[in-house]
Amino acid sequence: MENVGPQVTSEAEWDAALCSRKRKGTVRKVEVLETVFEVIDMRSFSNLWYWIALAVLWSSTSHWVLGVPHDMIQRARREGGQAQQDLEDIVRINATRLLWMVDHGAMVIVALGCFWLTGLAILAFWYDLEFAQAVFFLVFPMVFVVMLSVRVCRRIMAGENTGEALYRRMIVHRRWTQSIGMMAIFVTAMFGMWQNISASILH
């Protein structure tokens, strides 16, 4: 009979062939993972997607004040009537919901928030984990936005819930949110620049 090709005739050769195939499969998986990490760039502050996420976060937070889009506030102030009534209803619903969560679960919210922020800060600045640093700079400024939102909701429910008083309170709240966002972006950019410069010097 004609010999088609090399044949494995012993158990040792079978084992060697299987090990060779496994090694080749492992090498291919490693190469694929390396390619993915090179494309995504797991270092956060040198990653374009991180800065896009930061910009989108603060853009949406500044636009949606207490769950109400800014254009809705402007339209209600300009047109009045049904637009004003819709704005007052949405603000009342969102403010009541936020204050109910704070009044009935403040201790749990504060405890969990402090726990996660403390853990994140330890990973970020004690263990110098760059991913934790990036997440910390995203999350920590939002604490001030939430505190400001609770304060504004209490003022709205205390009487500033209609007409010009409501418009002024919402616009002032939006400006404060924008100020916090600009400060957060500035600090994050400075820290990220310092991290990138340090990494480029070390490597």
Q: What secondary-structure arrangement, pairings included, does this model have?
A:
Elements: H1 11-40, H2 48-63, E1 64-65, E2 68-69, H3 70-79, H4 81-126, H5 130-157, H6 163-202
Antiparallel strand pairs: 1-2
Helix pairs in contact: 2-6, 3-4, 3-6, 4-5, 5-6
How many β-strands, per DSSP? 2
**Overall 3D geometry?**
elongated
Low-pLDDT residue intervals, each spanning 5 or more residues: 4-9
Radius of gyration from the alpha-carbon trace, in angstroms: 28 Å
Strand content: under 5%
User: Termini distance?
Assistant: 62 Å
- How many domains? The number is 2
- Physical arrangement of strands within the biggest beta sheet: 1-2
Number of helices: 6
Order of SSEs: HHEEHHHH
The biggest sheet, with number of strands, parallel, antiparallel or mixed sense and barrel status, is:
2 strands, antiparallel
The percent range for helix content is over 70%
Q: SS-based structural class? A: mainly alpha
